[in-house]
Write a structure and sequence with these properties.
Number of helices: 4
Strand content: 25-35%
Largest sheet: 10 strands, antiparallel
Oligomer: single chain
Structural class: alpha+beta
Bound molecules: zinc ion
Mean pLDDT: 87
Length: about 290
């Protein structure tokens, strides 16, 4: 009788070079070996399935890749268009700068360095060629340079504007000329032993009397010996006075322009005939209007 231990063993016989080798394995070891081989086979099958799936994915990847390539080409074209636009804009800005420089010469206004003083820095860019293909970074730099140039133009123009405005104001606010058509019947100076503080311009009653500079009306009423009288404040301590009027055409507080009709010539107050008595008053004192003709 074969004992139970023998029954639970598997004997493997190998014949090599005429010699017989015998391996005796327990059934349990044998089962273990079969299990390992099974696991290996399952693992290999799983790998094969995986490779198959990968093969399927790569065909969809391929389509995606092609779509991305097409998109890439499209975007590159768009970037090239932007780069070209940046070039055109820079050319426009350069023309504006040239005009600015010309205007500065014509108006004799000083050059400003306000933008460089502001701490802004212009990126040092060489504009990308849209033929060789621009990149987003270089287009961005170009835009920053254009932005800087435009800011500097704006600052320069604002400065030029304020200089010109001040100059214009000085010009329109500085009395010039006579306030009416007519004959100068009396100059500023000593007359009949006292100071004649203004200039008399004689013409017929009703002749227009105009402001000799822009300003604000500070008086428009009867004023003793001056008769109906208007005074205009031009700022900078300068006022003008128009006396002996017939009619007053502006009210106190009104803004008047240079050359605006403010009254008509009359013969009111202490007057010896139709005329306008015109004074230029600087810091409260009448001065010779001759300096303002
Ligand atoms: Zn007078």
């Amino acid at each position: 009788m074969v004992n139970e231990k023998e029954q639970n063993r598997v004997t493997l016989m190998m014949i090599s070079d005429g010699k017989t080798k015998e391996y005796s394995l327990s059934k349990r070891t044998m089962q273990g070996l079969v299990g390992i081989v099974g696991l290996i086979i399952i693992g290999m099958l799983a790998m094969l399935v995986q490779v198959g799936i990968n093969g399927q994915l790569s065909s969809s990847d391929k389509a995606e890749l092609e779509a991305l390539r097409a998109k890439n080409i499209e975007q590159q074209e768009q970037i090239n268009v932007l780069a070209q636009k940046a070039n055109d804009l820079q050319a426009d800005v350069n023309r504006i700068h040239a005009l600015e420089a010309e205007m500065r010469q014509l108006t004799n206004t000083p050059t400003s360095d306000a933008v460089s003083r502001s701490g802004l820095r212009r990126p040092n860019v060489s504009f990308p060629s849209f033929l060789t293909g621009a990149d987003v970074g270089s287009v961005g730099d170009s835009m920053s340079a254009i932005e800087y140039d435009l800011k500097s133009s704006e600052t320069n123009l604002k400065e030029m504007h304020s200089v010109l405005e001040e100059r214009y104001n000085m010009q329109v606010k500085r009395p010039k000329g006579v306030p009416a058509h007519g004959q100068i019947s009396s100059h500023y100076g000593s007359r009949w032993g006292r100071l004649h503080a203004g200039l008399d311009v004689a013409n017929s009653v009703g002749t227009p009397v105009v402001a000799t500079a822009a300003g604000v009306v500070t008086m428009s009423e009867w004023h003793g010996a001056y008769g109906y009288c208007v005074t205009v404040d031009h700022g900078n301590g300068i006022k003008t006075l128009y006396g002996h009027c017939q009619k007053l055409l502006v009210s106190k507080g009104a803004k008047v322009k240079k050359g605006q009709k403010i009254a008509t010539m009359g013969n009111t107050g202490r007057s010896t005939g139709p005329h306008v008595h015109y004074e230029v008053i600087v810091n409260g004192r009448p001065v010779n209007p001759a300096s303002y003709l």
